[in-house]
Amino acid sequence: MASISAAQVKELRDKIGVGMMDAKKALVQTEGDMEKAIDFLREKGIAKAAKKSDRVAAEGLADVETHENTAAIVEVNSETDFVASNDRFVDLVKEIAAQVALENPSDLEGALALKSPKGTINDDIIEATQVIGEKISLRRFETVSKTDDEHFGSYLHMGGKIASLVVVEGADEETAKDVAMHVAAINPKYVNRDQVPAEVLDHEREVLTKEAEGEGKPAKIIEKMVEGRLNKFLSEMSLDDQEFVKDPDQTVAKYVASKGGKVKSFVRYEVGEGIEKQTVDFAEEVRKEMGE
């Protein structure tokens, strides 16, 4: 078998715009022949998929799947919301989440390299991109482990536009699911106020102090006002301190405690958060594809 250098991989990537793993695989298959490697990539549809790589994919779905004591939450993106409701896309997202939960990869590259019935997760994404005609990408994932006396709770809002994964110590799965629903709806930042970083508290205290000073209150009153408002800020950020969405008369912590448990951790994904979306005229793109 021919030895493939990093320089060859880079040259192929620069020529056709594919990922590093795909470039290396093509060169290995063709024993380092650059032209044959390009043909190989085109035949597999990988080159066509790579042409879409500069598009913005900010729609899609998130999903949660579990395997024994490991759970995975993933976000897979598409360019349009229409594709996100496609059965093929939905099945792909579930397949990726299930495989990630099963294998527990350490990073995104490892997740893409996971085996699938058609080859790898990356191969499945490329095929879906080719068939569906939009850029599809695995944006992020997180795996979470639990012990036998802990419970996973998950919730998908609007079929996966928002996904949440919760671990509750003690209690039961129904309680964990209730908390996951709350997390999806209310979007807390921390499990409890002890997790709020000191720099976040210091910044908020400074802002609240300036606000109170601007109201012309005496120093002693300002101090009490700031502490009161800071406490409210912490209760809004902390899951444990929030009013439980299904019963506002008690906090989340009290609800879980009434079931014999406490919240250990949570993860919440909202599809497309942090991605700068762009407006695309898809009718114009269709016209271009048809040569009009």
From TrEMBL:
Q: Transmembrane ranges? A: none
Keyword Cytoplasm applies: yes
| One protein family per Pfam | EF_TS
Q: Does the keyword Protein biosynthesis apply?
A: yes
**SUPFAM superfamilies tied to this protein:** Elongation factor Ts (EF-Ts), dimerisation domain, UBA-like
Cellular component GO terms held in the UniProt record: cytoplasm
- What are this entry's molecular-function GO terms? translation elongation factor activity
The record's region (Involved in Mg(2+) ion dislocation from EF-Tu) falls at 80-83
Q: Which HAMAP family does UniProt cross-reference here?
A: EF_Ts
Q: What is known about what this protein does?
A: Associates with the EF-Tu.GDP complex and induces the exchange of GDP to GTP. It remains bound to the aminoacyl-tRNA.EF-Tu.GTP complex up to the GTP hydrolysis stage on the ribosome.
The similarity comment for this entry is: Belongs to the EF-Ts family.
What is this protein's record name?
Elongation factor Ts
User: Which organism is the protein's source?
Assistant: Pediococcus argentinicus
